[in-house]
Amino acid sequence: MSSKLAIFGFTGKGKRLIICHIGSEDGFVPDALRAFESKKSGDYHEETVGESFENWFSNILPRLEENSVIILDNAPYHSRKMEKIPTSGWKKSDIQDWLRSKQIKFDGCLLKVELLAI
Asked: In the record, which residues are listed under signal peptide (predicted)?
């Protein structure tokens, strides 16, 4: 008699189901479910942008009991920067514009890497 062992694992590829819901020991908040099928096969978190999550969450918050505890995972759309900070991927002129918008003085002859160090 021979035995065979098959091990199945997730490849990280393919469609996903993205589910947002809020519940407690008393059950789920009525009409709070937000679920949809991912259209991408890669990083499905890119699909749910921060603004969309914030809108859903803002509509749910008033319906929670006072002193509720909220636990979120570390998905990128659960926390986002309100303002983008310059990176090395930015054009030098965009970095200069950003510095000007913050009223930060700089020498126009500086290299991009030097502007980022300010």
From this structure: none
Q: Which amino acid, one-letter code, is at 114? A: E
Q: Which pLDDT tens digits describe the chain residue by residue (118 residues)?
A: 445 555 555 566 667 677 888 888 889 989 898 877 766 555 544 545 577 778 888 998 998 888 888 888 887 767 777 788 999 999 999 999 999 999 999 999 999 999 999 9
| Vertex 105 angle, CA 100 and 108, to 5° | 85
The 8-class DSSP code of residue 60 comes to: H
Q: Torsion over CA of 105, 111, 117 and 118, rounded to 10 degrees?
A: 0
CA distance 78 to 101: 27
Domain ranges across the chain:
11-80, 81-118
